[in-house]
Design brief:
Number of domains: 1
Number of strands: 0
Radius of gyration: 12 Å
Number of helices: 4
Mean pLDDT: 93
Helix content: 55-70%
Order of helices and strands: HHHH
Shape: globular
Oligomer: single chain
Largest sheet: none
Length: 79
């Protein structure tokens, strides 16, 4: 099972904590117990909303934050 770096976990915690605090328990499960399809999808939806709001340049290309969020979204599929 892949794991997240400390930096990725901080970003994930920040985003989930602001957008859906009730989902923070899912972050604590990462790497310990497999997430269900619905749990992974919930986290991906939270991250996708953040990506749209903060992860794009004016020309709709991803900025650095967007690339980091996109990487996490992709990696959540492996949990």
């Amino acid at each position: 099972m892949a794991s997240f770096s400390a930096d990725e976990l901080r970003l994930l915690q920040d985003i989930v904590g602001r957008r859906d605090p009730a989902a923070e328990y899912l972050i604590k499960s990462l790497g310990k117990t497999p997430l269900t399809v619905d749990q992974r999808e919930r986290l991906r939806e939270i991250l996708a909303a953040e990506f749209v709001d903060t992860g794009l340049e004016a020309d709709d290309e991803p900025n650095e934050r967007g690339r980091r969020i996109d990487e996490i979204i992709g990696r959540l599929g492996r949990f």
